[in-house]
């Protein structure tokens, strides 16, 4: 019986880690599609004909819509009301930051770094941590903090690619 319990526990852990990986893969795919669309729309060289460019954009749009149909949800088991509230606030702040980063990546870099510095003990010199974000994220569970940091790292990569 003990072996069966251990096996089921391992399978549940694997399921959770696989779901996290799928969510990360989806985000990578969506970012790649967005980058390719930007490249195709801004490419002033004549490497592709207008018809080829339109065809590529059509395929990318289809891939984006297909990827958007995938919904991965990983719920944490142990969140109290304060942690749930903090998690919602952090997610709202990060969603706002993601919108700003997509609109103007270069001007958003400083804010992304200030959010990252609020999450990390090894801070980037010259960029003070965002105090509001820092005060909010400490109220989250450790899993929520890790997830927020991953989102910020993704934004930082995006900003660095555009610089």
Q: Class of the largest domain in CATH?
A: Mainly Alpha
- Uncertain spans: none
Strand content: under 5%
> N-to-C terminal Cα separation, in Å?
57 Å
DSSP E strands, number: 0
* CATH fold descriptor of the largest domain: Methane Monooxygenase Hydroxylase, Chain G, domain 1
Count of runs of 4 or more consecutive helical residues:
6
Q: SSE order, as H and E? A: HHHHHH
Please give the radius of gyration in angstroms.
20 Å
What is the makeup of the main sheet?
none
Helix content, binned percent: over 70%
By CATH, the architecture of the largest domain is named Up-down Bundle
Overall pLDDT confidence: 89
Query: What structural class do helix, strand and pairing data support?
Result: mainly alpha
Question: Can you tell me about this structure?
Answer:
The structure is a single chain. With 163 residues, this protein is mostly helical. It folds into 2 domains: 74 residues; 87 residues, Up-down Bundle (Methane Monooxygenase Hydroxylase, Chain G, domain 1), CATH 1.20.58. Helices cover 77% and strands 0% of the residues. It contains 6 helices and no strands. The longest helix has 41 residues. The mean pLDDT is 89.
